[in-house]
Design goal:
- By secondary structure, this protein is α+β, with helices and mostly antiparallel strands.
- 33% of the residues lie in helices and 20% in strands.
- The strands form two sheets. It has a seven-stranded antiparallel sheet with strand order 2-1-5-6-7-4-3.
- The chain is elongated, with a radius of gyration of 48 Å.
């Protein structure tokens, strides 16, 4: 998958990593915390990722905030890696400029000899990063757009010799249509008045009196076609109002969901930032206690020069027992100071162990000076 991050100035960067874990908490990958992505993807920082399946024309994109995987999960995953990969975690200074390839090869030989016959512990600067998604978007490309996928070859059928088409049967003969019969007029009957009976005279009409005109049928207020058109117009207007109301409800629900998600993300980021600040303070206090223990056991040589600073690197067990101590800088060539600091670290064993196990560091870096 591709994971994206931004630095303090807002400059983005993206790289491809291996997805090593996926559950309800988010997407997990493992890396060196001292590299660029480790420095930018600190707990509480924003991040985004995308997983692409080119053969399916599908992708999944996620945005959210970052958190570190617990030390126990990182230890379990690190222990399952091949030994060469575990040694490599101690060798490579990620995102740092090195003089040449021989530098890495020399460090690899040194670390291989250092852990020969022993289990390779996880470095404190190496562990898991989890992207806690706030938004997940899935997209499937239309088959018409996926031009880069070669279509399956069409199976060609063998050419067959053309066969003569069967003759169509002749159409049936049209039957003559029956001719309509001529209309039959009803016979006229004349009624003769029998002798001795006179018919009543017809009433005479007064020419001055006009007959009442027949009432004409009233025209409808609206024709049927106009009424249908008006009904359709009312029905469409009502449908449009219902559609607008539905969209308004959807927009309101979407706005509430986005506000709730944004509030949850902000609350989580704030809590992570507070926890990070608290852990930083506790870490400083823990390192100060360790340094005070070593300084108490340090017998400063009389030849120590002022202004000399020595960096002590201590490997310790989870119980605080010092496994190995070494000074990783020349201390201005003062071998007596280097030896005294190394011996002081061994005499100070076991070192203080923090109550919060997340603060424990297998490798400690402490700076000492005869001026302290």
């Amino acid at each position: 998958m591709s994971i994206a991050s931004v630095d303090a100035t807002g400059r983005p960067s993206v790289r491809v990593v291996l997805l090593r874990g996926l559950d309800d908490r988010g997407f997990v990958f493992y890396t060196n915390y001292d590299g660029r992505k480790g420095r930018e993807l600190v707990p509480g920082a924003p991040g985004a990722l995308v997983i692409h399946w080119p053969d399916l024309g599908a992708q999944v994109r996620a945005e959210g905030v970052v958190e570190h995987v617990s030390a126990e999960e990182s230890d379990d995953y690190f222990a399952a890696r091949p030994r060469g990969h575990r040694v490599g975690a101690w060798v490579s200074p990620q995102s740092e400029v090195i003089p040449d390839r021989a530098f890495l090869e020399a460090r690899e030989r040194a670390m291989t000899e250092r852990f020969e016959g022993d289990d390779v512990p996880r470095p404190a600067h190496w562990g898991g990063i989890r992207l806690v998604p706030a938004v997940i978007e899935a997209a499937l490309v239309s088959p018409n757009v996926r031009r880069y996928i070669a279509p399956e070859p069409a199976v060609s059928e063998p050419v067959r010799e053309s066969e003569p088409e069967p003759k169509k049967p002749p159409p049936p003969e049209a039957k003559p249509k029956p001719q309509p019969l001529p209309p039959v007029k009803p016979p006229t009957r004349t009624v003769k008045t029998p002798p001795g009976i006179t018919q009543p005279p017809k009433p005479k009409t007064d020419p001055k009196v006009r007959p009442e005109p027949k009432a004409k049928p009233r025209d409808p207020v609206m024709s049927r076609s106009a009424a249908d058109a008006l009904a359709d117009e009312i029905r469409l207007a009502k449908k449009a109002q219902e559609e607008e109301a539905r969209k308004a409800l959807q927009e309101a629900a979407r706005a509430r969901l986005e506000a709730q998600t944004r509030a949850e993300v902000q609350a989580k980021a704030k809590a992570d930032a507070q926890r990070q600040t608290q852990m930083a303070g506790e870490t400083s206090q823990y390192l100060a206690e360790v340094k005070a223990r070593v300084e108490h056991a340090w017998n400063r040589p009389a030849s120590a020069k002022k202004g000399v600073q020595c960096t002590l690197e201590v490997d310790q067990a989870p119980t605080g027992t010092v496994l190995q101590a070494r000074v990783i800088n020349p201390c201005n060539g003062d071998e007596a100071v280097r030896a005294s600091i190394r011996d002081a670290a061994l005499r100070a064993s076991p070192l203080p162990v923090p109550q919060n196990r997340d603060l424990f560091q297998r490798t400690l870096h402490l700076v000492f000076s005869p001026d302290d």
